[in-house]
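Ticket #4471: structure output looks truncated?

Reporter: J.K.
Steps to reproduce: submitted the chain below (178 residues) through the standard prediction queue, then opened the result file.
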Amino acid sequence: MGTDQLTWFNQLPALAAQQTLLDCCSAPGWAEQMTAGRPYSSTNDAIKLSGAIVAALSPADLAGALAGHPRIGERHDTSQDDSDKHRSTAACWSAQEQAGVDADDTRTGQDLAEANLEYEQRFGHIYLVCASGRTGTELLALLRGRLQNDPVDEWQVVRTELQKINVLRLRQLLAGLP
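Returned output as attached by the reporter:
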């Protein structure tokens, strides 16, 4: 299955490959460079290149990547029609990744909303974290801890978290792994 998906991706026209990659990471520069890096001999080769690209993303591209993610504890609407496939696929992945944030836990949800706003006021962008496999309580504790970072260090943490998310999504896209 994974080999078929990787072959399919390697054979996509460049524009279609870029659009597909924007589902993983909404940073246009990242998608362009990942497309230019084809063909990939393995999913791991794509992941390795992704890490190098994320490490060198400009602040504008990082901001573009952040724009494709909902706040922790919030969900994009996944009931949209097929005309907005990119947003729908990205929203589905975000919902899967944030599955540990219990929508019925009102107190944690309120605390996350307040902490998200505090984070955004401090750093000027959303709190990005690889939420996969983590509970709302864990994500809230991580957020509160990151509020202690200075802005330069926090951008490095954002890069690291973005790459973790990209790894998960590239594995789903190119290898069919959950």
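Triage note (M.O.): checked the attachment and the full token line is present. Residues 76-87 have pLDDT under 50 and may be disordered.
Status: closed, working as intended.
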